[in-house]
Amino acid sequence: MSAPLPTFVPVAVVGGGQAGLSLSAHLKTRGIEHLVLEKSTAMHVWADRRWDNFCLVTPNWQCDLPGHPYEGPDPDGFMRKPEILAYLAAFREKVDPPLLEGTAVTHVFPHPLGGFTVETSAGTLRADQVVGASGGYTVPIMPSYAGDLPASIAQIHSEEYRNAAQLPPGPVLVVGSGQSGAQIAEDLHLAGRQVHLAVGNAPRCARFYRGRDVVTWLADMNYYDMPVDMHPLREGVRDNTNHYVTGRDGGRDIDLRRFATEGMRLYGQLDGYEQGTLRFLPTLGKSLDEADRVYNGINASIDRFIDEMGIEAPPPSAYEPVWKPDAEPLRLDLAAEGIAAIVWCIGFRPDFGWLQAPVFTSQGHPLHKRGVTEVPGLYFLGLPWLHTWGSGRFSSVGRDAAHLAERIEEALSVARSPARLAAVG
C-alpha cells in the first residue's frame, strides 16, 4: 500500500510481521477498517536477521497462519530460509493488508478526548484502538564491556551473522547457547572453524524420540494448547530461554558434549573482561547437566503418555553424557588463543519506548491478559507466551489474532467514535 497517512483509522496496528498481518487478516474478515504501520518492510526480520543456513526448529505442519496452512510436500520437515520467505510472501499476498511500509511509529499516547494519538515518521493520525504487534525481540543485547575489547576482534550480534565466510579467518567465540547460539556454533563448527562457546543456562530437547518428532508428541499431549495461567511457572515462563535443537539436514539433536569431543571448546557463563582476558563462571558442568536433565525429563513425560494411552512405540531410552569437563576453564586469553571474532548470542529486549501508557512492569514488559491491557483500546500481539507456547510463532499467532479481533470488534463503535469525530470535525 502506498498512500498518504490518513487523519483517522479505527484500528492502528504497529508492526508488519506475521503477528500484525495475522491480525489484519482477521480484521478484514470482520470488515473492520484498520491500518498496519511498519517501519521497514513487512516481515523483513526473516530476511534481514537470519543466517543463511537458518531453518525452522518446529515441523512445517505447525505453520498455520490465518488462511495459510503449510501445504508443501514435507509437513514433517523443517523449512529453510528461502522456503520460509516464500511461505511468508504468499501469506502477505493472500492477506493483502492495508499496509504502510517505511513508516515508523514514534509515539502513541491516549488522547484526552478518547482513543489515541499516533505519531509517525509520515505524520500524525488518531485511532480508536491500537495494537502493539512489534514483537518482544527488538533490540539486540550487547554487554557493556564489548567496546573495551581489542579493535582487532570482529564483533557481531547473532542478528548480523550470515555464514562462517563472513568472519575473518581464525577461531571464533560464540557467547550464548540458546537456540541462536547453539545453532550458530554448530554452523561454524560444520564449516571447519575452531569454535569457543560460552554456555548459558538454556535447556535442550530431543529432536526425535521413540519414532516421532518430540514436537509431535508434545502436540498430542496438548502441551502447546496450555494457557500461560495453567503453566506451572505461570507468567514466569515468559522469561525462560528456549530449548536448543535444530531442524537442519532433516532435524537432529544439538549435543554440546559431542561438539566438545570433536574439538569445540566449552566454557561456563561469561562473567566479564579485563586486560585482554575474558572471565567465566564455573557453571559449565552444571549447565550441561541441567540441559540433559530437561532433555531426559521431556522424554520421560512422553514415556508416561505412551504408557497411559497404550501406544505402540520403540522402547524408551535416556541420554548418557558422552563428555564431561575435567576442569572448568575460567579464563580465555583472546590474543593467545588467536580469537578473530565474537558472535554475541545473548538475546534481545523489547522496545516499547514509543508507547506512553501505564501498561508495563518495572522491567519494561507489557502487562496484559491474552493481549488485552487495562487501558481500553490498547492491545499486544505476537509476544512469547502471550497466551500459549505458540503465541509468538507461526503455530498459534493466528489464534491469538482471532481472539483480539473479536475483542476489538466488541469494543469498537465507529458511529460514536470520539477519535473519528475529532479527526474529521
Secondary structure layout:
Blueprint: E1 8-14, H1 18-29, E2 34-37, H2 45-48, E3 64-65, E4 68-69, H3 81-95, E5 99-100, E6 105-110, E7 116-120, E8 123-132, E9 139-140, E10 154-157, E11 172-175, H4 179-190, E12 195-198, E13 208-209, E14 212-213, H5 214-220, H6 256-261, E15 265-267, E16 270-274, E17 277-280, H7 284-309, E18 331-333, E19 341-344, E20 348-349, E21 378-380, H8 397-411, H9 418-424
Parallel strand pairs: 1-2, 1-8, 2-5, 8-21, 10-19, 11-12, 11-19, 12-15
Antiparallel strand pairs: 3-4, 6-7, 7-8, 9-20, 13-14, 16-17, 17-18
Helix pairs in contact: 1-8
CATH architecture verdict of the largest domain: 3-Layer(bba) Sandwich
Number of H/I helices: 9
- Unreliable runs: none
Instruction: Tell me the name of the CATH homologous superfamily of the largest domain.
Output: FAD/NAD(P)-binding domain
What oligomeric state best describes the polypeptide chains here? single chain
Q: Which percent range describes the beta-strand content?
A: 15-25%
Tell me the total number of β-strands: 21
The largest sheet is:
7 strands, mixed
CATH topology name of the largest domain = FAD/NAD(P)-binding domain
- Amount of helix: 10-25%
Q: What is the residue-averaged pLDDT? A: 93
